């Protein structure tokens, strides 16, 4: 049996898996903006709860936002969505606490690995995750592309708008500052001040709300721009959309101009957990 855990900007989700069968699932708020200790407390609470049944666990797989060095299991860089996570020795801390081998990787890379179970034979696939931040990973010619600094998250930080909105990574105009749930909520509040979440914005759009329509059509323009950059750079057979926001499948698809190479994550928000276990 394996434990898989997915550390996102908003929620830590974990599961105990027997093969690909989910035996138990737990989650907790990440409290990522409160710093490293808060994130670790959430992570431990999820793992401890999963271990309550006393099953023998052989390995723990960790999927985490940020740039993760999969060989050392260390977070090389994370934005303030996971404050203080940069430099975090995920593998070391969890191995000393739980006494089983631990592997860690970027969350989009893990989600891609999970989803590849459903893409047999495909050698060029890109996965994008839309949540608190925007993550991305690409399989190119059968290999998962890793930048010099294990930058699995690079699609979230490609420039969509020169000199555009300030991004949490320090640059301007990144995809994440237009296409994350955080960015969409901030943009939505400019015209709908009482807006509570990106999910609510999608709900208003479905009801025909004009202000929500304007915000989401603008979101669509940026989304199509990102998809075109990816098509030009890595020529994927298929671009998979996942993460919390991608659950509004019909609306997202209606905003996309070229739909033939677009598919939605089959494992929904469990893709990272499955990929972490793989
Ligand atoms: Zn950025």
CATH architecture of the largest domain: 2-Layer Sandwich
Shape by Cα distribution: globular
Label the structural class: alpha/beta
Number of helices: 9
Domain count, please report it: 2
Radius of gyration: 18 Å
End-to-end distance: 12 Å
What is the number of beta strands?
12
Proportion in β-strands: 15-25%
| Bound small-molecule species | zinc ion
Class of the largest domain, according to the CATH hierarchy?
Answer: Alpha Beta
Output the CATH topology of the largest domain: Nucleotidyltransferase, domain 5
Task: Walk me through this protein's architecture.
This protein has helices spanning 36-50, 90-98, 107-115, 176-179, 181-191, 198-206, 210-234, 249-255, 271-277; strands at 2-7, 11-18, 21-29, 59-64, 67-69, 74-77, 102-106, 125-130, 134-140, 143-144, 238-242, 262-264. The model has no long low-confidence stretch (mean pLDDT 94). Helix 6 crosses helix 7 (210-234). It is α/β, with parallel strands linked by helices and 278 residues long. Strand 1 and strand 2 (11-18) form a beta hairpin. It contains nine helices and twelve strands. It is 35% helix and 23% strand. Strands 3-2-1-4-7 form a five-stranded mixed β-sheet, sandwiched between helices. The protein has two domains: 2-110 and 273-277, ATPase, nucleotide binding domain (Nucleotidyltransferase, domain 5, 2-Layer Sandwich); 121-265, ATPase, nucleotide binding domain (Nucleotidyltransferase, domain 5). The longest helix is centred in the C-terminal third of the chain and has 25 residues, at 210-234. It is globular, with a radius of gyration of 18 Å. The protein binds zinc ion (ZN). Zinc ion (ZN) binds next to loops.
């Amino acid at each position: 049996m394996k434990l898989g855990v997915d550390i996102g900007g908003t929620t830590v989700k974990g599961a105990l898996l027997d093969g690909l069968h989910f035996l138990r699932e737990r989650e907790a708020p990440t409290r990522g903006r409160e710093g490293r200790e808060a994130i670790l407390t959430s992570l431990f609470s999820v793992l401890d709860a999963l271990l309550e049944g006393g099953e023998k666990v052989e390995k723990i797989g960790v999927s985490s936002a940020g740039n993760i060095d999969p060989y050392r299991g260390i977070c090389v860089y994370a934005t303030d969505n996971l404050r203080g996570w940069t430099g975090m020795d995920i593998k070391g801390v969890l191995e000393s606490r739980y006494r089983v081998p631990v592997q860690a990787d970027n969350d989009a890379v893990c989600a891609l690995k999970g989803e590849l179970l459903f893409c047999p034979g495909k050698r060029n696939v890109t996965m994008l995750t839309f949540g608190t931040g925007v993550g991305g990973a690409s399989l190119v010619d059968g290999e998962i592309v890793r930048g010099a600094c294990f930058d699995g998250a690079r699609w979230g930080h490609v420039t969509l708008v020169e000199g555009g909105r300030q991004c949490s990574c320090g640059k301007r105009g990144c995809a994440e500052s237009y296409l994350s749930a955080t960015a969409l909520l901030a943009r939505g509040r400019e015209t709908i001040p009482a807006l509570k979440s990106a999910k609510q914005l999608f709900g208003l759009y479905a009801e025909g709300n004009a202000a929500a329509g304007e915000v989401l059509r603008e979101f669509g323009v940026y989304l199509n721009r990102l998809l075109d950059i990816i098509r030009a750079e890595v020529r994927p057979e298929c671009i998979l959309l996942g993460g919390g926001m991608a659950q509004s499948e019909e609306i997202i698809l209606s905003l996309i101009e070229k739909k033939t190479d677009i598919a939605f994550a089959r494992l929904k928000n469990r893709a990272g957990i499955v990929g972490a276990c793989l």
